[in-house]
Amino acid sequence: MACTCSHEPAPQKPNSHFRTALWIALLINITMFVVELIGGAYAHSSSLWADSLDFFGDAVNYGISLAVLGASLYWRATVALLKGLTMALFGFVVMGKVAYAYMKGIPPEAITMGIIGVLALIANVISALVLYAFRDGDSNMKSVWLCSRNDAIGNIAVILAAVGVFGTGSMLPDIIVAVIMATLGLTAGYQVIKSALKERQQTQHVHG
Description:
- By secondary structure, the chain is an all-alpha fold.
- It has one domain (16-207).
- It contains 6 helices and no strands.
- Residues 1-13 have low confidence and may be disordered.
- Pfam families: Cation_efflux.
- Keywords: Membrane, Transmembrane, Transmembrane helix.
């Protein structure tokens, strides 16, 4: 729907529930970033290590989202655009990590993968649940919901990969999961970028 009004929508009033949800998600993601970074390096798991980078990226995104609560739609959309580009970039980084892991050829340690994968899944399910109510908001709210949703899906895949590695002794399940995570990052990034560009276009006559 084209915007024909002469002024952009009024700045969004800070939502205390959304702010609280963001703080919870931020703390969870910082904690899991450290856990998966150490565990992924110990287990030689590219999917765990990639997921730790995802936790770190999400923590930064949640922090940015907290900073722009109450800002105008234009600036919220601008931040969402940057987050969408970051999500897509993460997808390409993971693809590169997959190629490196494949060339190195060291199977990951399945037990560590599984334990940390379960912890990460619990953490992301909690994050997704507290952010679920805001999934239909503006591009900024939508982006934080997509981050948590994708992380939860990715963690289920990590657990399945750990089972696969344990049963076969092959690194292939770990590689497959990393590719899935990269694809999720690319598609979610595209959705957020598309939504943010649309919102920026609606207000560009004010900030042009």
